Amino acid sequence: MNGVDPDISMIVIVYNDASRLPAAVRSVLDQTKRSLEIIIVDDASTDATPEIAARFAADHPGLIRVVRLPVNSGGGGRPRNVGLDHARGRYVMFLDSDDTLDRHACQTMHSAALSTQADFVSGLCVQVVIGGNGRRREAPWFSWLYRTSAVHGSLAENPDLLYDTLSTNKCYRRSFLDDNGLRFPEGLPHEDLLFATRAYLAAHRIALTPHRIYNWFVYPKAERHSVSARRGDIRQFADRIVIHRMLDEAFLEHGDRELKIHKDVKFVNHDIRLYVAEYAHRDEDYQREFRRLAGDYLRTLDPAALDRCEKAKAIAAYLILRDDHEGLLAISDYLGVRGRLTADLVEHDHRIYWCDRHLDTEEGRRILDVTSFGLHSLPLDRLNLAGVVKDFTTSGAEVTIGGEICDPLGRVSAPGVPRATLEFKSRGRRARFQVPVTLSPAGPRIRWQARFSLTRRMLRISGSDRIWDLRLRLSV
Question: What single string gives the DSSP state of each residue in 341-387?
Fold first, then answer.
């Protein structure tokens, strides 16, 4: 560097990620922007990470420095703070060891920072989902925020920025961070959420660029160790609530009620949705504790927030507040699987409601009113009706299998009992076979049952294909 401070300090944090660290570092070395320094902060790795980081530093003296923490911190906050303490650049960016930067990221961000004189610049992040078969699927992260370049004088000019609280798709003026005492919380997950939100609140100029900046890799479940991959651990949700209570203190200090309402709306639309979508697949202990933790926190939100939330998310929050387990199971299906419908809809005064409970108050009727969903008028083949297997018995070659399917507002059984078959479809060879089904209406649901004898063909297919999809096919 010849004694000249770099334009950008790139802080790369790593823990036991020897296989992916090289790609992350090379994505910085390959930048079209040249005035950089790379600070690799190793959070006390026990694999080959220290040797790989040392080799990069030896091959690029003066460009790459390695800082190794003596004890693992258990999160990303401490390593990033240590990196900030060692940064010499006028601007600072962050990179996780399992992600990469677009080749022009640093040049794009630095140019935008200089031209706008922004406290920080935020750019487009793209999730790169790696499937079990190695195929890649790309999903831009809140891309609607980054349709065009923009400069905002404060968060109040665009409160929707609160949806993007990643720290890694941003370039910060280091003096802005230092002057406002902005550092990551240590010892807590979701450190990005608190850090980025505090930065939004403190900033007097925020620039946005529509260009792709950051590649956030999401790996198969067996390889994922990130906080976002551990939503099945209720402690992870409890930690998120701790961070949100800290955010509430920051908004209270900031003194803008309207911004706080936007933050509350974002919590329901995004944070609650993440967990409710998986609620139906958790065990009873998790579900009970989730309702308690979420309900306690939701009761602290601004009363005006729920009416501004997306309808299905508002329903989820309202049912949590009412400790309505059955209602939550249905909205979990709806949010988690492309509008899968298991709710027992009801009609009152020509309005359609999610369930027949909580309609004795004006608030309940207002929030649970789903007339706008069109579930009462959409063609049946456009409804994602869901069923459940409730009984399965065998006796020799004889099989009995039964369950229920949703019959919203009696629309399926209204013309008479429909015809049905039960289809078994293998995921391996795409083989399939069907068996007849008997149906009987049961209030807001239809009960079904199939009794059949396994044939040699069925057994032969079943022996070679271990995973099957089961579908009830209705003709109505």
Answer: B----EEETTEEES-SSSTTSHHHHHHHB-GGGTTTTS-GGGS-B-E
What integer is the mean pLDDT of 194-198? Answer: 98
Residue 126 near residue 214 (C-beta atoms within 8 A): yes
- Burial class of residue 147 in the structure, from the number of CB atoms within 10 Å of its CB (0-12 exposed, 13-18 middle, 19+ buried): exposed
Residue 382, token pair as written in the block: 């456009």
Which residues neighbour 138 within 8 Å (Cβ) at sequence distance 6 or greater? 126, 127, 128, 129
Note every long-range contact of 250-256, with CB atoms under 8 Å and residues 24 or more positions apart, other chains counting.
250/194, 250/197, 250/198, 250/201, 251/201, 254/201, 256/156
pTM score = 0.90
For residue range 308-346, what is the model confidence (pLDDT) as tens digits? 999 999 999 999 999 999 999 999 999 998 899 999 999
Yes or no: say if 210 and 102 are a contact pair by the CB < 8 Å rule: no
Residue 13 · residue 80 · CB < 8 Å: yes
- SS3 breakdown of the chain: % helix, strand, coil, rounded to 5? 40, 25, 35
Distance CA 147, CA 347 (A): 41
DSSP secondary structure, 5-65, as one string? PPSEEEEEEESS-TTTHHHHHHHHHT-S--SEEEEEEE-S--SSHHHHHHHHHHHSTTTEE
Answer whether residue 1 shows pLDDT above 70: no
